[in-house]
Write a structure and sequence with these properties.
The complex is a heterodimer of chains A (337) and B (409). Chain A is α/β, with parallel strands linked by helices. In chain A, 35% of the residues lie in helices and 17% in strands. In chain A, strand 1, helix 2 and strand 2 form a beta-alpha-beta unit. In chain B, the strands form two sheets. Chain B has a five-stranded parallel beta sheet with strand order 1-2-3-7-6, sandwiched between helices. A two-stranded antiparallel ribbon of chain B has the order 4-5. In chain B, a hairpin with a 2-residue loop joins strand 4 and strand 5. The chains are: A alpha/beta (337), B alpha/beta (409).
Chain lengths: 337, 409
């Protein structure tokens, strides 16, 4: 199996789907001729032509709005928002339109669209190139929200998202586009080629939306993470020597509640890790679910390690980003409680 | 330097309709005066048309000028019928709202010519992206009134299953896209639909609809940019009925420039049309639809009309505009104007008019009875609460199944 980066895997997913289904079209700012500011659509316009892969004006509501219209027509658009931080002008189209079209028309119309957006911090992106707005999507009935943590899943999940008849917000942690960043910003970047999950099957395959995966089995505590934080959690666990079970959620809505609950019931402890700000973040939903479904099995309060409730700062990047040191210390405290 | 304090400009309610109706400021082009350009005209060659008013019917009801030859008598009689039916339907549904059989209704009184006339220019397969005030698009196609009524009543036959506010219809078969409460969103979606049609080498066209108030929304501008860039087959309709609830069109920017003129900055050709003149509506709609179908790109049309009725059944216009406003509105009533024209050419009569109205009233009463037989918002049957959880997603995810069970289903 070829070893791909996240970028190559994401591009490969679109390539596979554009070849299989001529209704699949890709567009967004700088997506066409240039191939995307992160190279995720590199070569697609050359291969499929500019009526399948094209540049758009800088208008996020326009980008998602035309996607909804194309979806209603019968195409399967894959729209790109250059940074998740810039999705807000499109929020009305995503929340009021894409998410509700099937419901409000009782199935007459639907929005089989994917909205891709690079997200997350750890790149000195500061306030408008680092955000993790997943909770603003998971709160919306009718949307699916997906976030891969490695090239294998990125390709399989993106193919599944394109084939899915519901609107999917596909969040791509840009910090791990080129390698599995574990939060040790002072060490050299490890490339994906050294990681087994960069091995990505050729051609078509899917990773089902709605299924979490246990990345590492453990007995002492369940760590719920997604995106970059899967790698941070694994490193933190190893460094403090705690036998944690690490669950990569992959899909936030629909959420694989069974995998989570079974794990927490077994370990009796749970830590939730995400980059997004804490208050009303997706961790709050996870925490509430665990309280409801695992209450009698819990030996300690559920712990959340998250970004602070501040805008994402520039100079204070590593004080903000929930890195292995913070996660590790929280793990030790959780095991002592 | 002696600097004067700045002053802050807030537009007057309306150049024509302030505390007392005064239409002396309203600029009217004479019928027949405005030229009919070639279908493949460049936008830059018809910039003046955004400041004119395309009209066919003159003050005496004669069809005059270059836009006048588009309609057959049969089309006109069918247009008159569609407008009368739309008006009668609105009246009936307003009564049903007052009888508390439903929660809410919105009439399009005074604006019937626009939707009914525009629909007559479309073909099967074309797609409208309407607002909540284009019920005429469906009624002009003789879409079953019972179906519309069941939606308004949210009963068991409501195809929207009681999920949507009344009048937020969806009728894919009739080329009528699902209505959303969020203004202007459908405008850019129409452009996307038309882009898809072009990308697929199809021959179908889209029609986008928006009110003048909602042109202030971001999606209006996004739609114009995308329509300008990709030249998709879409007609961009702006229905200027002078009022956005209580807010006059001047507050949407209408006092500075016409809404048709908005298109100029995007290089999109624009027409400004008498929206109460059925013949002008049909002719302009045919022009723009043909342009779209011949791959010549989009056209923006400002339809100048007047919202004669309250904004909705929750609105009281006497709080913000004069009582005699519709009576002095210089473009009159679209039904009366078409009736006078047809009568003038010997193709209609008062007796036939009265008879048609009676037939329509009977049809609507029959439909209302049938619709109410399937329940109303407050009594009779409606869709099961269990159906509330359907169609959020194509198939129901576990968390929704759990919530449905929690409700007892």
């Amino acid at each position: 199996m070829p070893s791909l980066t996240m970028i190559e895997a994401i591009r490969d997913a679109m390539d596979v789907m554009m070849a299989r289904d001529d209704r699949v079209v890709t567009f967004g700012q700088d997506v066409g001729r240039f191939g995307g500011v992160f190279r995720c659509t590199d070569g697609l316009q050359g291969k499929y032509g500019s009526s399948r892969c094209f540049d758009t004006p800088i208008s996020e509501s326009g980008i998602v709005g035309i996607a909804v219209g194309m979806g209603a027509y019968g195409l399967r658009p894959v729209a790109e928002i250059q940074f998740a931080d810039y999705m807000y002008p499109a929020y009305d189209q995503i929340v009021s339109e894409a998410a509700r079209l099937r419901y409000r028309s009782a199935g007459e119309f639907s929005a089989p669209i994917v909205v891709r957006m690079p997200c997350g911090g750890g790149i000195f992106g500061a306030q408008t190139h680092s955000q993790s707005p997943e909770a603003l999507f998971t709160h919306v009935a009718g949307l699916k929200t997906v976030i891969p943590s490695n090239p294998h899943d990125a390709k399989g999940l993106l193919i599944a998202a394109i084939e899915d008849d519901d609107p999917v917000v596909f969040l791509e942690p840009k910090r791990i586009y080129n390698g599995p960043f574990d939060g040790h910003h002072d060490r050299p970047v490890v490339p994906w080629s050294k990681h087994e999950l960069s091995e990505t099957p050729q051609g078509h395959y899917t990773v089902p939306i709605g299924e979490a995966v246990v990345r590492r089995e453990g007995a002492e505590v369940s760590i719920l993470a997604y995106g970059t934080m899967v790698h941070v959690a694994e490193t933190a666990r190893r460094e403090v020597g705690i036998d944690a079970e690490i669950i990569d959620l992959r899909s936030l809505i629909p959420l694989d509640v069974d995998t989570i609950v079974q794990s927490v019931i077994r370990t009796g402890r749970c830590m939730i890790v995400h980059e997004a700000t804490r208050t009303s973040g997706f961790g709050a939903e996870l925490s509430a679910l665990i309280q409801e479904k695992c209450f009698y099995h819990l030996e300690a309060p559920v712990v959340r390690v998250t970004g602070w409730d501040t805008p994402y700062p520039h100079a204070q990047e590593w004080d903000y980003f929930p890195g292995p040191d913070r996660v590790g210390r929280a793990l030790i405290r959780l095991m002592e409680s | 330097m002696n600097v004067q304090p700045l002053t802050f400009h807030v537009p007057e309610p309306h150049p024509c309709f302030g505390s007392a109706a005064d239409v002396s400021g309203f600029q009217l082009s004479d019928a027949a005066r405005v030229r009919r350009p070639e279908i493949d005209v460049e936008a830059s060659e018809i910039r003046d048309l955004a400041y004119e008013l395309i009209r066919v019917l003159d003050a005496d009801g004669h069809a005059v000028g270059p836009w006048s030859e588009a309609c057959t008598v049969d089309q006109l009689r069918s247009g008159l019928r569609a407008m009368l039916k739309t008006r009668a339907y609105d009246a009936r549904m307003t009564v049903m709202q007052r009888q508390r059989k439903t929660s809410f209704y919105m009439q399009c009184t005074g604006e019937e010519a626009i939707a009914c006339g525009f629909q007559s220019a479309l073909q099967a397969g074309d797609m409208n992206f309407p607002t909540y005030r284009q019920q005429g698009l469906l009624i002009a196609q003789d879409w079953p009134l019972v179906d519309l009524m069941c939606q308004v009543l949210s009963n068991e036959k409501d195809r929207m299953k009681g999920r949507q506010l009344p009048v937020f219809y969806s009728a894919r078969e009739a080329g009528f896209f699902s209505i959303s409460g969020n203004l202007a969103t459908q405008y850019v979606q129409a452009v996307g639909w038309a882009m898809a049609s072009a990308m697929r080498g199809d021959s179908r066209v889209a029609a986008a609809w928006i009110g003048e108030g909602a042109t202030a929304e971001n999606d209006f501008h996004a739609a114009l940019v995308f329509a300008s860039v990709y030249r998709p087959p879409v007609v961009l309709n702006v229905v200027n009925n002078q009022w956005a609830i209580s807010t006059a069109q001047s507050v949407a920017g209408g006092a500075q420039a016409t809404f048709a003129a908005r298109a100029h900055g995007y290089g999109i050709p624009a027409l400004r049309v008498d929206g109460n003149d059925y013949l002008a509506v049909h002719a302009a709609a045919c022009w723009a639809v043909e342009r779209a179908r011949r791959n010549l790109g989009s056209t923006l049309i400002e339809w100048v009309t007047y919202r004669a009725a309250p904004h909705s059944t929750s609105d009281d216009p006497s709080k913000y505009r004069p009582q005699n406003d519709q009576a002095v509105w210089p473009l009159g009533d679209p039904v009366e104007r078409l009736k006078d024209h047809l009568t003038g050419i010997g193709e209609w009569s008062e007796a036939r008019h009265v008879q048609l109205k009676a037939e329509l009233d009977e049809e609507i009463a029959g439909a209302a009875k049938e619709a109410q037989g399937s329940g109303t918002l407050v009594e009779g049957s409606k869709c099961s609460p269990a159906s509330m959880f359907d169609d959020v997603y194509k198939s129901m995810p576990p968390h929704l199944r759990e919530q449905r069970q929690e409700l007892g289903f």
